[in-house]
Design a protein that fits this description.
heterodimer; A: 350 residues; 19 helices; B: alpha/beta; Rossmann fold; 5 helices; 50% helix; ARM-type_fold (chain A); transmembrane (chain A); HEAT repeat-containing protein (chain A); membrane (chain A)
């Protein structure tokens, strides 16, 4: 029995050792192959990056066999994408030409319809980076995909392909755009030259609440003053997040009536929105709002009282003196809040 | 001009080498900040072009270490990602001489380097 165990152990060890050598050899071959590909693709990409303007762009003969290898195609495709992300100007045009000469757009087309989500996502991203305009329709179809990664890549790619016109996906999307993806989209738009937006009025009436919030952010970021009345209307929307964004947007396109508009909704707002209103009021520095704010001190919770007092102090540098004149300024909790504010101001001055 | 390129991406590194050699510069390549420091001490280049995001020693750390040791003897251009204004300011604070936001045009880089070459003469 012991002898049998010994033979089994020896046999297993030999098999494991052989397997180890085999896989190590395979890994070495793979590394060598990738090292050759690395060199060849770098040379090819560099040739296309630095080619003279008048030269006809064509593939060297030795690449024709290699380009049939699907693994090499994926490898060089990623290399070209990296190069396009890092270089600009004429270089990008040449790299796009290389992408087309290697017929990598056909792989991209195939992958945009792939059942595997990560391949589909990558393909759509590549469409945007390589600016493959003939893929616009496929990209647009995916802007309302149930998979959020595919959806955001398609939305970003559509903006890259068609600029501000790409925002047409806001007309059709049923899935919400998360806060993070709204930032991603706004960052993408930042690289474009501002132009006249088409569709704002429609998007502000969208059944998709995140579309309304995103549109309000567009109004704020691009200072679209003509939509002031529409934004004011949204201060009365039943959704508190839309109202919150409307408050923030109004502050970016404000006029003399804005403080009044914001104070008119203050009483019935959520605590979060009340704090947002106070923050905006402190930046307007409108003296006429101080009596109203002092009045509010009588009815609000201690948490909000602190914010209100700080707002008053920011609106008027003599704000603390005004606060000390109000009837209950010397009884808790107001006296404590005022004292704390004084200490904070003294600390800031130091 | 003796130029050291510190960039962890193989493709970008080789593209920069290709372009700089075309402009008749003497080019040394470093695959990360640590490698760059070693080669700088060996060769003392006139100019260092460095990426910000690199393993072991970041581009910002590299800028600080070079300026601490070589002051104005070595000029530094940092390659940053578009929109990283805070990183650019930090690099200038550490002593960087110029920056180029990615994506960048190799021709623009070439022109900027020529400016340094003229100043050196």
């Amino acid at each position: 029995m012991l002898q049998l165990l010994f033979y089994i152990t020896v046999y297993t060890s030999i098999v494991l050792l052989l397997m180890m050598f085999f896989f190590s050899y395979l890994n070495k071959v793979k590394k060598q192959k990738y090292s050759v590909w690395e060199k060849e693709s770098n040379e090819l990409i560099n040739t296309f990056i630095f080619i003279d303007n008048n030269t006809v762009l064509e593939l060297p003969d030795d690449i024709h066999t290699l380009k049939k290898n699907p693994f090499f195609r994926t490898f060089i495709s990623q290399k070209i994408i990296t190069a396009v992300k890092n270089f600009s100007g004429e270089t990008t045009r040449n790299l796009k030409q290389l992408y087309l000469l290697l017929e990598l757009d056909k792989d991209t087309l195939h992958d945009t319809k792939h059942v595997l989500g990560h391949l589909k996502t990558r393909a759509i991203r590549n469409v945007g980076v390589m600016n493959l305009k003939n893929f616009e329709e496929i990209v647009f179809e995916n802007t309302n995909h149930k998979n959020d990664l595919i959806r955001i890549e398609a939305q970003v790619a559509l903006i890259r392909l068609t600029g501000f016109k790409g925002l047409k996906f806001l007309n059709i999307i049923t899935y919400p755009i998360s806060e993070w993806y709204q930032i991603v989209l706004l960052r993408e738009l930042k690289t474009l030259d501002p132009e006249k937006f088409k569709g704002i009025k429609i998007w502000l009436k969208s059944f998709n609440k995140s579309v309304i919030v995103f549109t309000l952010k567009l109004i704020a970021n691009y200072h679209l003053f003509e939509f002031y009345p529409d934004t004011v209307k949204l201060l009365h929307h039943k959704n508190h997040k839309i109202r919150l964004q409307a408050i923030r947007t109004l502050a970016k396109i404000f006029n003399k009536n804005t403080p009044k508009e914001l104070l008119s909704i203050f009483e019935n707002e959520t605590t979060e929105n009340k704090i947002a209103i106070l923050k905006e009021l402190s930046s307007f520095k409108e003296q006429s709002t101080i009596p109203y704010l002092i009045e509010l001190l009588k009815q609000e919770t201690p948490t909000l009282q602190i914010v209100i007092i700080k707002t008053i102090a920011k609106i008027d540098t003599e704000g603390i003196l005004l606060l000390e004149k109000i009837p209950n300024a010397h009884t808790p909790p107001l006296n404590n809040i005022i004292l704390q504010l004084k200490e904070e101001q003294a600390y800031e001055l130091d | 001009m003796k130029i050291l390129v510190a960039e962890d991406d193989n493709l970008i590194r080789s593209a920069l080498e290709f372009r700089l050699k075309k402009d008749n510069h003497d080019v040394t390549l470093a695959i990360d900040g640590k490698d760059a420091l070693k080669k700088i001490d060996e060769q003392i280049p006139d100019l260092v072009i460095t990426d910000i995001m690199m393993p072991h020693i970041s581009g910002l750390e590299l800028v600080g270490l070079i300026k601490e040791k070589y002051q104005n003897q070595i000029k530094i251009i940092v390659l940053t990602t578009m929109g990283q204004e805070d990183v650019v300011l930090e690099a200038f604070g550490l002593g960087a001489d110029d920056f180029i936001p990615k994506p960048f045009s190799p021709n623009e880089l070439s022109v900027r380097i020529k400016r340094f070459a003229i100043k050196k003469i």
